[in-house]
Amino acid sequence: MDAGQQTQRRAGSVDALEVLGSALRRLAEGSADEDGLRTIAEAVSAATGAEVVVLRLLDELAGFFEAHAVAASSTAVAAELQGSRLAAETAAEHTLRPSAGRLGFDVVLEVPIVVGDRVLGRLELLRRAQPFTATEEALARLAAAYAALALGGLGRNGKGAYTLPSRELLRLGGDALAAGLDERRTADQVALLAAQGAGAASAVVWRLDDQERPDVVGAYGGGEPDPAGVAEALRGRRALAIDPTSWVLQLGQPAFGALQLRFEQPLLPSDEVLDALTIFAARAAHALRSSARARRQSVELERSRALVAVVGQAIAELSLAHTLETAIARVAELLGAERLAVYLYEGDEERLLEAAGRGLAGPHTRVAERLLELARGPLRGHEAMLIEDAADDLRLAPVREQLAETGIEAAVALPLRVHEDLIGLLAVYPQRGRRMTPDEQALVTALAAQLAVVVQNARLHEQVKRRESDRREALEAERHASEMLRSLYEISRTFAQSLSLETTLEAIVRTVAGLLRLDAVAIRMPDERSQALVTQALHVRDERMGEAVKAILLRPQPFSPLLRRLFAGGEPLLLDSETAHDLGGAYGLLVPFLDKGSTTAIVPVSTTAEVLGTLTLLSLDPGRPLGEDDIELAHSVVGQAALALENARLYQQQKKFADTMQRSLLPRARPNIAGVELGDVYESSARLDVGGDVYDFLTLDDGRLAVALGDVTGHGIDAAADMAMAKFVFRSLAREHPEPGDFLAAANEVVIGEVALGKFITMLYMTFDPATGEVACSCAGHPWPRVVTPEGEVRALRARGLALGIEPSQTYDEVREPLPAKGAVVLFTDGVIEARRGCELYGDERLDALLASKAELPAGELARAVVDDCRAFTGGDLTDDCAVVVIRRTA
Prior knowledge:
Helix 6 packs antiparallel against helix 7 and helix 21 (about 715-735) packs across helix 22. The longest helix is centred in the middle third of the chain and has 60 residues, at about 440-495. The protein is an alpha+beta fold.
C-alpha cells in the first residue's frame, strides 16, 4: 500500500470513529437500538473496507445468532442476510465460511461482542481477495466494544432490558475512550459516559490553564459550571473529592484537568463504583491527552499547510500579488477572519500602502500606520500585538476617529521583518472580545515570518524583471537606432558607390521598407510638366501582394490643388479615408484598405531648396499600424536620402552633358569598305567631366582603312580641346603621311607645339589593306593591339615608340602582319586593362582570355563583350573611360 492509500485509509478510520461515537451518543440518549446497530455496521464497513458487515445478537433461549444489522454494497446481499440465523453451538466452527463462499466472499473476520464473560452477539466482516490488516482488525474489535456498550443497558427478553452495573458501563466506556474517539469531541464523550455510568444528572470536563484556573472543555446535561468549587476540590490534591451532590475526579498526575459529576439527590459511591470511576478517570485522562496532542498536531499541520501554500505560491508564480492573495486567503480561512490586510512600504518615501486585503473600507491604512509606530516603539521586539478592545486602548487614541469610521473593534498586528528591516504589517481585525488561542497565535506568527521572506523575494524578483524589461527596452532602442544608422549608411554608401539616380531611388525604398517593416514603399517624383507625380521606385515586401499593390501605387497621381498644398508644405501626412478620397488617383484607390484598418502616410522628400518628390508608406496589417514615431523616423531617413537623391539627379544631368560633349568628338559613322567589318564601343566612367579617349576612321586614297585611337592626359575642358586637336591631326596628316611610322612622327611634331608642358597623347595608328589582308601598325606609348585568329589564338602587335608631345624628332617602329580571313584586330585604350576591383587590375591576361573565348563573335559584339566583361569585373561602374575598336576581315 503506497503513502497515498495509507493516508486515505487513516482518514477513513477517523471518519469511522466519528460515526461510531455518534452512534454511541444516540444510544446513550435513548435512541432505538436497531438504528444504532445499523450505524455501527455502516461505520465498520467504511473504516475497514469490508464489502459486507453483519451484526448478530445472541438469543440465549432459542440458541442462535440473528442478523439485526447488515451493511452491504449489494442490496440483494443485504436482503438475503438480514434476519438470517446462525446456530450458537456451531458458531465456533466457522459455519459462516461456506455461506460466505457461496456469496462470493473468500475473506471472513468474526469478532465476538462480549460484556465481562457474557457473549451478547458477534460482528462478521466479509470481502474478496485482500486479507484484513491488523489496524482493520483493531477497528473491528473497537466497533464490537461500542456495540457491547450500546447493548449493555438493553435486554433480549422481549421488550425488557438488562441492567448493567455502573462499574461495567464505566469500564466499557473507559475501553472505548482509550481506543480512541473523535478528537474534537472527546471531552463531551467523557462527560456523557461518566454521567451515564455513574447515574449523574450532568457532568462537566475541566482543563487547567497555565495559572491552574479551570476552564470548561466538555459537558453533558444542564446546570451552571462551578469553577470555584472545582478549584477548591483540586487544591486538596485528592484523586476524588466527594460532596453528596457533586463528585470531582482529578484527571492526570499531576492534574491537568477534572471531571465533575452532579446528582439530583445526595449520593455516596460504593467501593466498586469508586474503583470503576478511578479506572475511568485514568482512561479518560489518557484520551484527553491524546486528543490534545492530536489537536496540536492538527494545528501544526494546518500551519504547515498554510506555510506551504504561501511558499508554494511564491515559488510557482514569483509574483508578489499572487503571494499576498494566497496569504490573505489562508489566514482568513484558518482564523475565520472576515477583515484583514497586508500593508507594505512602497517607494523612496516609504509610504505604507495596502497590498492585499478583504472586508475593509475607509481609512484603515492610518490604523495600520499607528500599529507600525507601536511596533517600532513601545512594542518593539514583539512578534505579535494583540489589542482586544481598540476603542478603549490608549495606545490607539491617535486614530480613534479612523477606528470609528472603519468599524475596527480589535486588532492582531504582526510586523513583517526581514532581518532587522521592517517592510510591512499583517493585520487581522476581529470582533471585540475575540481572543486568539495560543495555537492560532503561533500559526499566524509563523506565517508572518515566512510571508516577510517570500514578499521580499517576490519584490526582488519583480525588481529583476523590471530591470530586465528596462534592459530589453534599452537594447530595443539601441537596435532601432542602429537600424536607423545602418539605413542612413546604406543610403550614403549607395550614393558613394553609385551616382545612378535609379540605384539611389531603389536603395531608399528598400531601406525604409526594411527599417519600418512596411508592406510597400514607393517614391513619386513630378513628371516633366509637373502635372502628376510618377512612381520612380517601388518596393513590395511580400511577392504575393506584388501585383495588387503595384496596380495601385504605380498609377500616376494627379497634381491636384490639395496635393500641391501638401507638396509645398513639406510636412508628413498620415492619410485618413476622407483625405485619400479627396486626393483621388492612386490614393483614392486606397480608401477601402484604410476603412479596414490599413494605414498609409505621405512623407515629402525635400532638400532645403525644394521638394523633390514624395515617399508613400503603406502598412496593410491593422495590427501593425503606422504611428507618429514611424513617420518621424521615415522623415529623418528621407531627409538624408534627399541629399543623395539631389546629388544623383545633378550627377545625371552633368553626366549627360559630359557624355554628349565626349561623343561629339567620336566618329559619327563608320566607313563602308568591302571585305571589312568594323565595330566600336565607347563607355565613359562614373566621372562627371569629359575623358580623354578619342578614335576615328578614314578611307585612304589607295582604298586602305586608316584607324587612329588615342588617349589624352587629363579630363575636362582641357582634355576635350586636346581630343579635338588629336582628331584634327589625324584627319589632316593621314592622307599626306599614310604609313604608320611616318604618320606618328609627323603627328608628334604637331602635338609638341600644341599641348601644354607635361601633357602628352598616347596613340595607336593602324592601316588595313582589304585586298591583301595586311595590317600595318605603329604605337606612341599606347597599349598594343591584339590579333585574334578564327581558331581563338591571340597575339599582340608589339610596336614601340614614345608618346606624342614629349620629345621632338621621334621615329616609330612599324609592325606589318597579314590578317587571316575571319580574323580580327582589337584596338583599346588603357581604361580596359587598368580597370580596378580594389587593388586588382583587369590586366592583359584576362583580356586575352576573353578574346580567345569570344573569337567567333561579329566585330560589334566582340567590342561590346570586352566592355561588358570589364564592367562586370569592377562591380558596376567603370573606373576610367573605355574605348574598343574591332576590325574583322570578312573576305
